[in-house]
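Sample pair:
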Amino acid sequence: MQDLVEVVMSLKFAIEHIAGGSEIDLSSGPAATKLTDYANLLASQGALRAALAYLGKSEEPSIATLRERLTGALGSAHVRQQQTAARTQRSQGIHNCYLIYLFIM
């Protein structure tokens, strides 16, 4: 499936380049189905951003639902990453205060 997607995307980019940058719509038809299947495969392997990139702008319910789920998961991952960074900064701050206290004593 990856080979098929690579060929489809390469042809899409080549035609867009030849056509002067006008975007080719792959949001419906067999190509959209294969790209959605590939996005599902990528998402199941944890490549959420890559999966989102292959979904396009289709408003078909199944594609829109997958796009919303991926966007939500990426937002949650971003929030978790920020929370982890904040905890790390707090613990480093406490550690630094303790070191200063030990140095003064």
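The mean pLDDT is 78.
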